[in-house]
Amino acid sequence: MAISTEDLAGSYPVAVGVATAEQWPTEPGEGVDCAALMCEAARAAVVDTGSDSIASMVDLVLATQGLSMLTDAAGRVAHAVGAPDAQVVTYQVGIPQQALINRAIEAVLDGSVRAALIVGGETKRRDDLARRAGVELPPLDVFERGDDELIAPEGEIVARPEIDIGAVAPVQQYALIDSARRAAAEWTLDEHRDDIAAVWESFNEVARANPKAAFPEARSAAWIREPGEANRMLAFPYNKWHNSQWGVDQAAAILITSTATAELAGIAPDRSVYPLVALESSQSLSLSRRADLHRWPAMGVLGRVAEAQLGEPLTAIEHVELYSCFPAAVRVQQAELGLDPDATATITGGMPFAGGPFNNFVFQATVAMVECLRERLGERGLVTAVSGLLTKPGLTVWGTEPSVRCTPSDLVADVQASTDVAPLDEDPHGAGVIATYTTAGPRVSAVIDLDSGKRAVAACDDEALAARATQEDLIGARVAVEGRTFTI
Fold it and tell me: Do 277 and 150 meet the contact criterion of CB atoms below 8 Å apart?
C-alpha cells in the first residue's frame, strides 16, 4: 500500500541511528562485560543520529537476552543513554530478533512512543577466555531497576524424541535439514558437499572486504569442504567452519523513531532509512514434525506477503543479508524466497566469518544494511531472521525512500495453513526408510518414515555405520525401529 504525504510528515517509522560495538580480548579478564558492550553500542547509535535531543525522546528500550542471561539489560541501556524513564523490555532466547524490530515499528506507528531503541550483544569470547583460564570475572555493578517486562518464548523448539537421542545441538539439526535437501535435489554426497562449500566460499569472499569481520581469513571452497585439524567434522556433512562462529564479543543498537520526531530532533534526512516490510511468524514446529524436511513454508509465506506489499519480486532488491547460521539456512531461504542461488546472499560475510553473536546477529546485520543504504540512495536491502532450528522466521525490507507503508505482522495463521505436519510416533516399533540422517562420532541419528505412515526419530550407535554414512548415502535405506534405536 502506497504511503501518503500525511504519513510521511507524521508517524512513518524510520531508523535514524545505528551502531555496533566490538572487542577482541586476548588475555583472560580483558574487555568489558556484555552489559557494558551493549551500552556502548546504544550510546554510539544515539550519537549516530547527530541529534543532541533524541535521547530524551527514547520512550522504549528493547533488548535480547543472550548467553549472559541478563534480565536488566534494557534498563541498563536506558540509563546509559539518558532515558531512565523509558519502558524497558527484555526478550528471552527463543523469540526472533524480528519481534523486537516489529514491536519498535508498531510503537512508533501507533504513536505510543516517540523513539524506540533496540539493542543486543554477546561477550562469549571474553567469557570463554576467563573460563578456560580459571579466572573469575568481576560481577556486574549493582543496578537497582529491573526491566518492566521479561518476554518468554512459547511453543516446542525440539521434540522429545529428538532430545532422547541427543540430536538437539543446532549443528545436528541443521545437518539433518541439509541432508534432506540433498535427497530432494537428488544429489550425490559429493555434489551436496560441493554446493555447501561453494555458498560458504561466497560468504567468505565478502567477509574479506568487511573491516568489522571477526574471521576474514581467506577460506577456499576446498578448505571449507574437507574436514581437517582446524576444520574438524562436527555432524556430517558439517565441519567446524560450516557453523556460525559465536565466540565473539559483538553488540549492536538500532534507534527507530517517526519522521515527525526525527524532524523535531533536528536529525538530518541523510540519516534516515525506512522499514518498508516487517514480517514474522511465531509458529513453533519441531523438525521431526515437518512433513517436508528440506523446506520451510513459513519463510515462503513471509516472502509472498513481502512481494505483495512491495508490488514486485524480492529479486528486485539490490542488497541481501540472509540469516546464515548454517548452509542449510541460507539455501532453504533462497529456495523459499525465490532468490537466485548464485547471487550474493550477504553484505557482511555472515555468521561464520563476520561473526555470529548468539542472540544478536540480526541487529548486527541490520546496522550493516542501514549503513550500506545510506551510501546508496534509492536502493533497498533485505534482512532475514531465524529463531531456533528454521523455526520462527523474520523478514525486513529497508529502503532510503518510503515507497510503501510498513505494516508489521505476525503471519502465524497463514504459516500454519501452509505447513504440512507429519504425525510423530512417540514410541515407534516397525519398519521404515531413512528420510534424513547425520553422524556425530559413532552415532547415526535419523528421522525415519515408517511404513505405518508415521514419523520416527531414532539412533544407531555403530562406528562402522557412521563411517559408511559419510561415504555412502543412507537416505532411502530400509531400517527396523525399536523405540529410540534403529538397525539397518
Answer: no
Is the C-alpha dihedral spanning 332, 176, 470, 351 positive or negative? positive
Q: Is 50 exposed, middle or buried (0-12, 13-18, 19+ CB in 10 A)?
A: middle
Paired strand residues for 481? 430, 486
Sole residue written with cell 537476552: 65
| Gyration radius from the chain CA atoms | 23
| Domains by residue range for the chain, with CATH | 5-155+246-418 (3.40.47.10), 429-487 (2.40.50.840)
Question: What is the C-alpha to C-alpha distance for residues 185 and 285, in angstroms, rounded to an integer?
Answer: 23
User: Mean pLDDT, to the nearest integer, of 111-118?
Assistant: 97
Q: Which residue has cell 522429545?
A: 160
C-alpha 282/C-alpha 202 separation (Å) is: 31
Distance, CA of 363 to chain centre: 9
Torsion of CA 371, 375, 380, 381, to 10 degrees: -30
Q: Is the pTM of this model over 0.70?
A: yes
- φ/ψ region of 334 (left if φ > 0, alpha if ψ in -120 to 50, else beta) reads alpha
State the amino acid at position 334 in one-letter form.
Answer: Q
Tens digit of each residue's pLDDT (9 = 90 or more) over 260-312: 999 999 999 999 999 999 999 999 999 999 999 999 999 999 999 999 999 99
- For the record, the C-alpha cell of 59 comes out as 520512550
401 CB contacts (<8 Å, ≥6 apart)?
A: 274, 377, 378
Cβ neighbours around 156 below 10 Å, total? 13
pLDDT classification of 224: cutoffs 50, 70, 90:
very high
Residues 6+ apart with CB under 8 A from 282: 96, 99, 154, 155, 392, 410, 412
Residues 6+ apart with CB under 8 A from 271: 16, 17, 48, 49, 50, 262, 374
CA gap 471, 448 in Å, rounded: 20
Residues 6+ apart with CB under 8 A from 158: 168, 173, 286, 287, 389
What are the pLDDT digits (tens) for 339-384?
999 999 999 999 999 999 999 999 999 999 999 999 999 999 999 9
Alpha helices in 272-389 (DSSP H): 297-310, 327-337, 350-353, 361-374
For residue 184, give the C-alpha cell: 530432494
Question: Quick one: which of 115, 133, 116 has its CA closest to 125?
Answer: 133
Flag whether pLDDT at 10 surpasses 70: no
Which residue in 316, 312, 331, 333 sits closest to 384, CA to CA?
A: 333
